[in-house]
Amino acid sequence: MMWDSDEQTALGVDAAHGAAYIEALDEYAQACGQNASAPWRALLYIGTSDAILWAWLRPRLDYARGTANLHGQVELPGVKDRGIPLASHGSTQAGKLLQVARHLFSHQSEPALDVTGLLQTLSDRGYHVLMGALHEYRGHH
Q: Rounded to 5, what percent of the chain is helix, strand, coil?
């Protein structure tokens, strides 16, 4: 995981993730006139960790209203047909990370999250995405 110079903001698990995350934070700040809150930072960190997940999630976000539709299966029509080999399409890892995002972002009751199962089944990259999202949610304390 990469960190900014004062080690307060997680910048992504790799350069592509870092660039997508910073772009999403900038887009949020422009739309809302303020920096993203902890729940939004965690959501954007998870969402931008994978191009397919982000393509699915981005149209479901309304920064100005403070809303996000995080329910439904991560699926983009025609992705399999185009031969895009990205991990999140149909993957259980994307679903698990999205479930974490729902818990961190939503003010509504969500089904219980199996933390042990999550930690045992995430790839190393998924684990680092999870840790970065928790860092962002914690608010840099």
A: 55, 5, 40
The pTM of the full predicted model, rounded to 2 decimals, is 0.82
Residue 27: C-alpha distances to residues 8, 19, 54, 57, 80 (Å): 20, 12, 14, 14, 29
51 alpha carbon, distance to own chain's centre: 11
Q: Provide DSSP, 69-94.
A: ---S----TTHHHHT---TTTT-HHH
**What's residue 20's pLDDT?**
95
Query: Residue 28: which residues within 8 A CB-CB, separation 6 or more?
Result: 35, 36, 40, 44, 63
What would the pLDDT profile of 2-32 be if each residue is shown by its tens digit? 444 444 456 788 989 999 999 999 999 999 9
Instruction: Provide the pLDDT confidence category of residue 91 given band limits of 50, 70 and 90.
Output: low
